[in-house]
Amino acid sequence: MGVRLMVVDDHRLLAEALASALKLRGHRVLAAAAPTAGSAELVVGRAPEVCLFGTASPAAPGVFDPIVRIGRERPQVAVVVLGPVPSPRGIAAAFAAGAAGYVRHDERIEGVERAMLKARAGESAIAPQLLRGAFAELLNPAAQPDDEGRRLLRMLTPREAEVLVRVAEGEDTRLIAAGMRIAPSTARTHVQRVLMKLGVGSRLEAAALAARTGLLDRAADVRTDGRTDAARGPGATTPG
After folding, report:
1. Number of H helices, E strands in the chain
2. Is residue 164 helix, strand or coil?
3. Can you spell out the DSSP letters for 49-81?
4. What distance in Å separates the CA atoms of residue 127 and residue 219, rounded to the nearest whole number?
5. Predicted model pTM
6. Long-range contacts made by residues 30-37, C-beta under 8 angstroms, separation at least 24?
7. What is the distance between the alpha carbons of residues 98 and 76, in angstroms, rounded to a whole number?
């Protein structure tokens, strides 16, 4: 028995193409509409059994507000989200809003159809591998470059942050000492502390790590904040 459904998507062409494909498979499509932002009123008015809700930005704030309203005013309508993967936060947000399923938007039509039938029957419609991937990412989130850079910066003193910037700029110990107006032996000590704190074995590795994690930009900001000897001027002193 065919499903009475609606298809909404931010891209009208995608909504109409999916609607046409499902019609050919014997389903009754009440409407194909765009964008998703205005879909709640239409779904509430038409009351389909299933609403296919396509979005390219499932993690965006408020994107699933229409699903919340549909659940509140037409709880019998099962909403299945079509979205990108990997998007663990998007999957979590979809179910938190009341969606009955989540299908990756490059799924074959047979997969979409199976999800529709499961959702209409009151079952959760999501592939086990998507669910496992979402849980794994939410429980063990990958460190974002900016977060890692901030963490590493907290390990360095302002002087060491400036040393790191100078190392990344290719300055040797002599130039670092001259630029910071400190003794070469002190500059060498600072360099060694930076390498030790970052857990690397060479200046090149330190520069690469700093660039990759965003630490270099943050260290450069510290350098220009007026918290280093060179920035304070000849008469300034700072404990080494």
Report:
1. 13, 6
2. helix
3. SEEEEE-S-TTSTTTTHHHHHHHHH-TTPEEEE
4. 44
5. 0.58
6. 30/4, 30/5, 30/6, 31/6, 31/7, 32/6, 32/7, 32/8, 33/6, 33/7, 33/8, 34/8, 34/9, 34/10, 35/8, 35/9, 35/10, 36/8, 36/9, 36/10, 36/63, 36/66, 37/10, 37/66
7. 11
Looking up tokens 């630490």 gives 215
Read off the pLDDT band of 233 (50, 70, 90): very low
Residue 126 sits at the vertex; the CA angle it makes with 120 and 96, to the nearest 5 degrees, is: 85
What tens digit of pLDDT does each residue of 179-212 get?
999 999 999 999 999 999 998 888 988 888 888 8
Rounded Cα distance, 165 and 225, in Å = 13
Residue 200, by phi and psi: left (phi above 0), alpha (psi -120 to 50) or beta?
beta
At residue 124, the 3 state secondary structure works out as coil
Residue with tokens 């994690």: 213
- Go through the chain and tell me how many residues it has: 240
Q: Which amino acid is located at 201 in the chain?
A: G
* Portion of the chain with pLDDT greater than 90, in percent: 52
